[in-house]
Design goal:
The structure is a homotetramer.
Chain A (H helix, E strand, L loop, with lengths): L17 H7 L5 H17 L4 E7 L9 H9 L5 E4 L1 H11 L5 E2 L6 H6 L2 E4 L2 E4 L2 H15 L3 E3 H10 L7 H7 L4 E2 L7 H10 L5 E3 L4 H10 L2 E7 L2 H12 L5 E8 L13 H7 L2 E11 L2 H14 L4
Parallel strand pairs in A: 1-2, 1-9, 2-7, 6-8, 9-10, 10-11
Antiparallel strand pairs in A: 3-5, 4-5
Helix pairs in contact in A: 1-13, 2-13, 3-8, 6-9, 7-8
């Protein structure tokens, strides 16, 4: 066995840029080596004009403060197709209405919070009454949309009606990036739709969106994906490629989920190769670390190398 | 502070029953104490005639061999409402057709597997050609069903057409247990629907199911939930209670997901109290351990105490 | 690729024994398959008369209530050599003095606990004043022992002076099982030694124990190890085999630590094969699950198959 | 309940410094909020002239390429006292001899590696023959040192004999920073001592070092600790404070270990407050993320704010 890539220890300097820090980790191993690899793949992917770029967005990334990063990725054309959980979109809409999430703590009496009408998302607090404003907003939007449409179209209608350029849905609308949200009923948008349907007609077909997404997979010259967390977004992106003769050429996963329990969220990207979702020769890496730390690093470091 | 519950070390005896083992852990702490607590809550919940019982089923539990346990839980009336990922239902259908999953290994070259047309799910192998049979089955079922129906109705139609009493979908059909699968398009059932819709009419409304589920939440005298893994099933069950004046009285979560990354999958059950999804006085416990180990233990131990 | 071991779903029956439950998991995958494998290996190992059996004991297993299980393993000759953290031995001594740990909760104000003089170990509470009794006990023991001895000899002296057959140290003394504790100063035994040495002579050589342990490795016809948690016990056992021409023939690890961060605690048993610590043809398995759940299961199930 | 700290989403700019990135995360939650907090505490701690600064170093940080960062922290006076696992020191000595670790992969046949005489540490490869050179080096050093000494003194002798300013041990020697390694026999240094002692006298008392360390704890006006990983270094630092009337004023933990299994490695810093190891009013934060990613960020960001 030939050993020809010695570990080169990282070196920290005062006022170094994120790009320089990541470069300094290029000779390291474990997570340090993987974050370098992730930046390198991401840079290649966003600079590849023939690459259709997917983002899978799970976890409570918006409440954690990752909203501008994602909307900037959309506006900077680093995302062509977004697949999200419903929750991230709900919280995006809330913020776009000028309503805030608040820094809280996880070391708190949740029954006390309930009595104070404050909802907790780990160490983020959200006043319950925000959902009253949310209801008013959603119900007014539902009134303006066609009776029959797809999930993507519904989200596009919502995005068009938000007045905040930092919004993910608004940015996606502006940049013509389709937003897929397979489990939309599994969110407070869904609860609003349930409410609306008690007295109104609304028909959103669950399978309608698939054609558009799979067509994009068929048509892609090359394809790349960044997967934040697991869940539906991860699986939905990967399975859409499954039915095509193609496969992903670039794949980055940012997660803390582990493979050993066998769920798809923690499944390795190599496992996806056995299915043909990711290509034999694809570049891929999983960074096992909190995505609210690694996503900002990757986006910041890759920006420096971005070919304008 | 009064300290009045001394740790009583567990004691192992030859040929002890699962029930006796769990009893022996009743004075222990950490996971040992929690598995006892989970059994105790589960036993109370399934013996409570006024309790509506939910199961949230995420993770690849069917490929791992947990299928009979879940279908027996349904037939034994331990589940009134099932919320599942699409994947568990896909693999249930495959097994009900007499097709097998196989024991494999995670230490394998996935590109080799791809070339051999074997799909991997952690240490489970699945021949790719099973999906050809699956396609034939699903397409023939789609032809027989109404053009317009809900996800639950679609799954009920499938369940009715399976010839295997150990099947989850068949058992649910037989026992009149509704199966919710909010992200059904995020599964190979979804891919088959996409295929079918290329030449046929099929309209499955994404929000149609919510009324029935929420009505069950409204009507429940008491409510209990066992949550296996996280994902959509966990959130969908909890949010359905959110819009009612009620909340869950019993809650058990079996997961390896951790709270610190802030996602809903790893969120503590206490966090759910701040939202009012779980009640102030509810009994709840999370067992942080592989659910393919803890689910069999809990079901086995609780069976011994089951009031017939 | 030949696929010849179909997944056989587990089946739960009323009043089944732990042994029957584990047998029922023999055809399953993920953790369920691994716990069966662990029992199968453990059974072979304890029934192999030529096998020298090691136990690595890390984590707060004694405060959690696993003390009788370990002392019974010693008395049942399932352990020939014990390597432990200091903490487990400290808490064993405390319990052997008739002092208790108490069931508490991790959802508590730790500053309040401090003010109440209660120490917390996750969800276990320990009155601070127990350490006053502990001090008295240890100081009286130190006065009776030779000035110069090894760590193993020191622990043997302590074990001889405990009056509790359920004690790990007492059982080890009774059964002539050496107890290694490489990081003994990293425990409250160490703090007591520091106190004692302020006015007395005591010389415990840090390297003195190695010879005896390595000799046992050299002399073993076959060798097996059960590793609970990671840390020093895991590494110390494995490295002792490293300098011999031999390697472990059986290895079971019970842990929640993950490989991806690169530490030895989470390192796979396969990694240990690259070093020659575990043999090429050795049987090994890691069960990724809470050890306070999996240890009782394995010991209970294996007991049923024990050849007396 | 007053909610007055709205989440301020992070904003990424081209060529931003690490310091600016971390500042941009100051209004975020989850890991992003915690990494900002860690930098803020670390900056305060290293700029506090009355603070005695401890580093606990566990995990395979040296093989991963974190060696220069740690030795620079020592030379930049960010560490007054180092407590390490033996493994990190072994690999530091190897690198200081001009021998390399190599980038490898965790997806490899370990039996093949064994046959090629290559040892694996997750995705790092190490030629077995490096240990031959290591043996020669250590044996020659042992010959030059006193027969009777403490672990710290032994490590100081080794550091003095290394010819590499990037070495942790050499830097500690140069800067008069004591290095504690309670479990030194649990390392290849220990194996070399065992070998040496077969034909030579060497007496290293296991408890000898405690006095010096505890005296430093007693004498500290203020005390701060950064804990990388868990294990012996974490516990040894915290317990040394336990016997004093003082407690840590600053504490930062970088780990992936989780609290729920009850081990000390995953124990929260709040738990340490119940023991009085960390003070009631101390600033503390745990960042749950790969330390090979978070350590470089924290050191880089804090450097920018360093008062020279």
């Amino acid at each position: 066995m030939e050993l020809n890539k010695p570990i080169r220890p990282a070196k920290i300097t005062r006022d170094m840029t994120v790009d320089q820090l990541v470069d300094s980790l290029s000779g390291c191993a474990f997570g340090a080596g993987r974050i370098y690899e992730a930046v390198d793949i991401y840079r290649e992917m966003i600079n590849d004009p023939d690459c259709t770029k997917f983002l899978g967005l799970a976890g409570a990334m918006v409440p954690a403060g990752m909203r501008h990063i994602v909307s900037d990725m959309i506006r900077d054309k680093e995302i062509d197709i977004l697949v999200s959980t419903g929750a991230n979109l709900v919280h995006d809409i809330i913020e776009s209405m000028g309503l805030h999430h608040y820094k809280g703590t996880d070391a708190i009496d949740d029954i006390k919070l309930k009595q104070d009408a404050v909802n907790r998302i780990y160490d983020v607090f959200l006043p319950e009454h925000h959902f009253t404003d949310f209801e008013e907003k959603l119900q007014s939007i539902f009134k303006e949309i066609p009776e029959k449409l797809s999930i993507t179209q519904l989200l596009s209608h919502i995005g068009a009606r938000l007045d905040d350029d930092a919004s993910i849905l608004k940015s996606a609308y502006d940049m013509n990036v389709p937003v897929y949200c397979p489990a939309i009923q599994d969110s407070i948008i869904g609860l609003q739709a349930w409410l609306y349907k008690q007295t109104n007609q609304l028909n959103v077909d669950v399978f309608e969106d698939m054609r558009g997404l799979i067509d994009r997979c068929f048509d892609a010259k090359r394809a790349g994906v960044m997967i934040i967390g697991g869940g539906v977004p991860k699986n939905f992106i990967l399975q859409s490629m499954l039915v095509t003769p193609r496969s992903f050429d670039y794949a980055i996963a940012l997660t803390m989920d582990r493979p050993e329990t066998g769920g798809l969220s923690g499944a390795t990207l190599d496992e996806a190769r056995s299915w043909g979702k990711i290509g034999e020769k694809a570049r891929s890496v999983t960074v096992y670390s909190d995505a609210t730390i690694t996503l900002p690093i990757i986006v910041a470091a890759a920006k420096s190398g971005r070919i304008k």
